[in-house]
User: Fold these one by one.
Assistant:
Number 1:
Amino acid sequence: MRIEVICTGDEVLTGKIVNTNFSYITQKLEDVGLAVQWETTVGDDRENLLLAFRLAGQRADAVIVNGGLGPTIDDLSQEIAAQAAGVGLALNEEWLRTMEEFFRRRSRVMPPNNKKQAMLPTTAEVIDNPIGTACGFALDIGRARFFFTPGVPRELKRMLEEQIIPRLLAKSGLQTAIHLKRFHSYGLGESHVDALLTDVDKLVPDGSVKLGFRAHYPQLETKLTVRGRDMDDVRVKLAPVEREVRKRLGNFIMAEDEQTLEGVILSALTARQGSLAVVETFTSGQIAARFAHQPGAEKVFRRGVVARDLGEIFAAVGLDGDPPEGELTRETAEAVAQAARRRTGASHALAVLIALDDGPDRIDFGGTICLAIATADGAESRRSRILGGREWVRLGATEMGLDCLRRYLQGLPVAERIDFEKT
Amino acid sequence: MRIEVICTGDEVLTGKIVNTNFSYITQKLEDVGLAVQWETTVGDDRENLLLAFRLAGQRADAVIVNGGLGPTIDDLSQEIAAQAAGVGLALNEEWLRTMEEFFRRRSRVMPPNNKKQAMLPTTAEVIDNPIGTACGFALDIGRARFFFTPGVPRELKRMLEEQIIPRLLAKSGLQTAIHLKRFHSYGLGESHVDALLTDVDKLVPDGSVKLGFRAHYPQLETKLTVRGRDMDDVRVKLAPVEREVRKRLGNFIMAEDEQTLEGVILSALTARQGSLAVVETFTSGQIAARFAHQPGAEKVFRRGVVARDLGEIFAAVGLDGDPPEGELTRETAEAVAQAARRRTGASHALAVLIALDDGPDRIDFGGTICLAIATADGAESRRSRILGGREWVRLGATEMGLDCLRRYLQGLPVAERIDFEKT
């Protein structure tokens, strides 16, 4: 089945906004085993819209159109859809009532120009939008089934997942029970994980498990898409593969599915009624910023200290004397973490200290990271070196600090060699 | 002149990466007065690439193609370009030598598969890539001039700005002296600024100054694109408009052109040999993270303190006793900033305290912000309330804290009513 996507709107075409709706749509389709072949972006322009609809209608079996369903004069999708399909527009009384009710529930009166959103091509099948006034719809243009969706991301997401993907799966004849299992890891590159997981999908011989990746440094997402007759069948197929992925990636899996690394740490600390102090240098507050704003973190996050100068760090955590001369060491990081814990009374303290290379930013600019985690039982630490420019070092050190804390809380070795460090 | 863009590559088509190259290209073209009419994304697929090239070659005057110039087997741009143009491929000896030299300078031997990058359509005009091995080129397909660019963002940027935009401007017949002047502001919404700047572009009656905006909450970018015979002409035209924008937006302009808010603050503090301490609550380290990592900030940033609990803040800055009961006040923020300054010895201290609403995140979730800036001369403070969900409050408070510090350092009133706050 050939699927195309058409994105509309001057804001996307001129780059005022980055087209994240498209990457969202195509990822979601990939996740259920459907592939997008072609994407077109055009502005709020009658001639280009009509041509885009006609060309896609000649080539594709299914087309998802995003945007242009709003109430303003530059929202043209219904009008041009009708023109391309060779039909007229008519007021959909039911959608008009839905909209009026939408405004009434918000104690507002519907502005007259919203009526335009209920003008649909006469052959359109309405696709519900439970959270907005833009009416989704489907109709045939050329040889393709077109699905029209709103530009507002949360409305698009809901409509795509609940209404359009099931229709596409039915049309494609694919089995409709589908599940996406995700693992989040830090420290191993995509090609390394790919090699580690060789043939893991072959554990289910019928090809219904597909392995994929999405890298966004410093994290990597490993995805298993599983298809089956029904959800029971999916679970049976997924179980051995999931088990094998956990075995092979082991300690590197820091979160699964909707979990985040910082959320996993928050849960682990909350469960043991723990609390956290954080000390940072070049990461500059980024570690605290990942953790402390989370709902529930107000009960766990005790204190964060940021300074670029090690002497200032010593003063802030109440360590007497000057920092030792010479290279940054794990011992210094341990002393800082212990002192931070004592000073704040937190059950856990994480200190991430960084000695940056000299000179201007460049591709081989690096930083030496000494980090430590302290509790009443003592301290654990690691030393690492990351190259790749200032921002790369900062992102990597932030992730490494949080991941070592996660490892510590889960009783795993804090230091394990990763692909991003140099020795 | 009709311009189209074709983005190629499975990673973009499947959404593994968000297509920021396209928004970059189209913005850059907008900035010099050129408009993109149509964008197409296709994968690393011979049939779709050929069709995309042919269709664009029928419709457009100029086409920018991005990606597919690499050394691997799925990089197809040269091959399909030659096919679409009806010409052959030939080894470009000069580019081969350029690549060999590229590797030699890095003390490496060129891998054999890189030779593919020097195979160009016989009618191609080489477009230099001074920082990579992907050779840019231009040739005619159908009625359009095609420009082929690398997918690596920094290589694309350099080639677009130095090589392709001048060629497009020459082809379009537009005057080629063009300048983009940018103002960055915080606190006024796009429609408000648009109203404030009504007819500012009319100060130059010949239409050669164009006003535009780019909103990325909480900042707004106001852009003036000026065209002229030469740069002297551009400067003459820009001067009165620039003056008027500064007059009308006044204290709200926090940075211009390549400047950033945090960079402006760093320069102002560096110039007076000042130093900075920051105290944060719900912003969770985000204020420190914006500032303290900058090159040069190691000399200026003294210390950051983060806590979610006001009692913990008091302890961290050395204030005796418990925080006052009841509503958060400006006086408390002033006391915290003063104490932070005393404790750290910094010349300036910024305290941004936030009382969050209760309950789960929602669209009207809000926070009350009390912030203060303290120096040896005393303290200034402001109180504000921002609604719009947890993340909106966090971003807004971070920006407000930094912008008030900027205002203080520039001798401007710290508190001026902004569009994002409720009273």
Number 2:
Amino acid sequence: MAARGHRFQERDMTKIHLFDSTLRDGAQAQGISYSVEDKLKIVAALDKLGVSYIEAGNPGSNPKDMEFFRRVAEIELKHARIIAFGATRKVGSQAAQDKNLQSLLAAGTDALCIFGKSWDYQVTDILRTTLEENLAMIGDTIRHLKSHGKEVIFDAEHFFDGYKANPDYSLQVLKAAAEAGADCLVLCDTNGGSFPGEIYAITQMVRQEVKTAIGIHCHNDSEMAVANSILAVQAGASHVQGTINGIGERCGNANLCSILPNLQLKLGFSCIPAENMAQLTAVARYVSEIANVTHNEKAPYVGNDAFAHKGGMHIDAVHKNPLSYEHVQPESVGNTRHILMSEVAGRSTLLARINAIDPTLGKDSPQTQKVLDRLKELEHEGYQFETAESSFELVVRKELGKYRPFFERKDFKVIVNEPSANGINSSAMIKIAVGQQEEITAAEGDGPVNALDKAMRKALERFYPAIAEIKLTDYKVRVLDSDKASAAKVRVLIESSDHETSWTTIGVSTDIIDASWRALVDAVEYKLLRDQEKAVQ
Amino acid sequence: MAARGHRFQERDMTKIHLFDSTLRDGAQAQGISYSVEDKLKIVAALDKLGVSYIEAGNPGSNPKDMEFFRRVAEIELKHARIIAFGATRKVGSQAAQDKNLQSLLAAGTDALCIFGKSWDYQVTDILRTTLEENLAMIGDTIRHLKSHGKEVIFDAEHFFDGYKANPDYSLQVLKAAAEAGADCLVLCDTNGGSFPGEIYAITQMVRQEVKTAIGIHCHNDSEMAVANSILAVQAGASHVQGTINGIGERCGNANLCSILPNLQLKLGFSCIPAENMAQLTAVARYVSEIANVTHNEKAPYVGNDAFAHKGGMHIDAVHKNPLSYEHVQPESVGNTRHILMSEVAGRSTLLARINAIDPTLGKDSPQTQKVLDRLKELEHEGYQFETAESSFELVVRKELGKYRPFFERKDFKVIVNEPSANGINSSAMIKIAVGQQEEITAAEGDGPVNALDKAMRKALERFYPAIAEIKLTDYKVRVLDSDKASAAKVRVLIESSDHETSWTTIGVSTDIIDASWRALVDAVEYKLLRDQEKAVQ
């Protein structure tokens, strides 16, 4: 922290363990609720990125989490340990008899995180027990879990507020956890009200008092969670808790998408394998889509605007030397520079995708340019292909002339009647053509999208019986331009699956039925295309 | 910065000057463009709040700004000085002949802000002149403006990067500005890449080298702009530049909505009159509305979620003592606490909400039980009230008999035709009744939800003209039971806003049109209910 001539930052290859809580503390955020499938997908993405720990649920307070822990145990992870989270034993009970601790052990993870109180007033006024019993609860719990061979991380709730009120007691709490065998002591700024200077000073003092590894857990209520986490590391913490995109209750948790590059690219700490850093933007966007929240395009490092340049002066300078207005290279975190007047997109990423379909094309082939132009046009309309890879593949194929449509839509009409009698209130008429043959049919459904989906399948099934295998497994809608109220553009993402795999397609339109239709058509065509290719092989 | 026992923060009544650049640097953000009227409205709101400076435009680069400066001169401001912003004189020219400086003076403000380069490489490689000429440009410009009696604030662009590359030169730049008579030297972290520790150390060194007042100007590219600004103040800066809601290019400028309460409520500096602090949330929302950007509901201090509590454990603790999970009182910044309903929230949470409507009911009243039963039934159907507080309130009122519907739906019918001609492909017919009066009407729209929304507003507007104020700002759909494909249950969340606040409503149905309809009706009824209650007060 002190100034040393020009060496304001120490370059340090020390390993810092990232502890992701997107699935646990992140699930406390307003509007967030994950299915078991959502959680498994996020686990896979975080493990691929290379975080050290993934805190995934609280089996004691949420019985639904047990299915997740059973299923995640079947997955082989490369980098991460899965964490089950819970409280210490209850006041006046025995650790071995505590139901929550039994659920925690039953989750079957190798590592656990438990939280306990470290602010004297919280013990006496909220928990309503003695300061001694609180120390015993923490010690007993950790010893019990350690006797089962678990790695145990201890979250000292309200640590900084506690230290400011009663430093001796908050240190006693840490020492009780350390003596019981905790592997890491995490200092929590639970209310998010602490300042960088005090986080630095208190962490440094704790560092001198205990030998156990120190962690940091910050909330963003003062908009300083990232800086607070960084300063804790500079004061000696080696474990950082946070969430992807800062998802979390109130103003969010410390944002790992900023902390990770700050620590690794700027300060030289080692958090994840260096070659994985370029996955960061994709992981951030993927989590936003799964959590069904609007991705923050102004987010440092991982937002679309993070490397966008508008002012003419700035753009000139960026062309002369990107260092003029960019603190890191956008590619280092898998993002791209956006020049807002005349966009120049990242061609090499695209080329890799094009070569998967046609390996003969090069960076400067006219066909590559044609695909690029079409994608820009679609992105301008609101398409976003990060999560809709199947639609992306169809677009590339169409532009390369490697695609023959399976059918042609001639017409459709949907009628919705309210009030509905037993849910079936919509009917759809559809007319399609396959080659020279036409088919007109109709179906009823629960709502217009369902009616249309059923009518389309009915019309196509006699030509393509494999359509019966498609199951629509998820359907998400986002409003793109919210100023225009219900006439705004909507983006529909449809996830489909058959017995072998799942795939996601996208449709954008001002009309939700039309957007859904486009995504449905892509879903069907992608399935038929895949079956056709397998038949050829 | 250093630890002093428990006194980690100095309480300091020192005056800190807030310099708001929402209208100048904020206008560099993607998607932001203000009319002259917009700018005048924001000036009035900022002056009422009590900031010291309002940087409002760059008359040299934007001739349209002249009209603004002419009109703003007619307004009497209570707290703020208006600032015109511009560059130093051009390379090799005379300050008195420089066109930009002439425009700057023609703006007629008492105070000006000029920027100059303080990073040697930027002078030689971007500006392409000598280091000496750059010093002369800065000195000449400031002397010229001072000779016209202006207060002159000097922005040292790229100061921190410059200091790290060549500390001697960057200090020469500051000294040249100070000797020429600058009233304040602003250290800019133009690329937003600096770290809190180095900002603190460098600001402290500058403080020792020059006697002139020091300012700080940060960008948020490393998500540390707020912390960096705070540390600069703790190191001796007395002037802080930023924008409302952090509006600004790339990842935004330092957010005054967080810096202000951090400095004044937490550290005890004096930035604005104490009695004005409770205006903060309203000013933040007002600027979002005028700038036409979605207000960030997770924003510290001024977002709807900033004091929202979800977990049952947290809620119990907040009821026992708000300090448990709140770093400041929501009312201190003009915000309010939100207790979110969810499966983890218990009866005490519910009771607090019920008591807001009927204070006479107790935990064991039969009516409380009735509300609880109805909520469980709705949650079982797929309703989730944690984000849809407004629908929640309507449900409670209905169960308590404290609700009279504003209208009755008699019938509706929606027809969707494809292919669509110019997007307008849907039409809706609706029949409603208000008391004994019936209204039947129809509307066309982009998609069925839009058509229905428009038809409903059209039918109701003659009874309730305030409906015209409602703006639909977000629309989200989640599939609840994805196994059933497109016939699955969907949950629609609609966020609406007017000039004062925003509210969220929910609808669940197997039919997306029906679910949307329910959420739309709640949105309208909640607005009318709120207006009615205000009228009664």
